[in-house]
Amino acid sequence: MKKGELIAEFAKRTELSGAAANDAVNTLIAIITERLKKGDTVGITGFGTFSVAKRAARKGRNPATGEAIKIAASKTPKFSAGATLKAAVNPPKKK
User: Fold this and answer.
1) What are 59-94's pLDDT values in tens digits?
2) Which of 13, 34, 35, 86 is the most buried (most CB within 10 A)?
3) What's the number of domains the chain is made of?
4) Contact at 8 Å (CB) between 57 and 50?
């Protein structure tokens, strides 16, 4: 599902206009992004948690030349699925 399809489905389920659904989805994404930039964690009960993971500086290799290179430390966004989402995706097997 692409963002446009998500917005269309959101509009359909909430009976909002396409423009209002677009604004709502974009606002949610903006809020999560702003909080992650600040280093906060965003938890949505039953869905999951968005957080920022730190990657240490390390050595790597240029695959084209084999030359050793330094890879700078960085931060990356991370998502950890909640129990309800995991259960929905992987339902228990019936015996």
Assistant:
1) 999 999 999 999 999 999 999 999 999 999 998 887
2) 35
3) 2
4) no
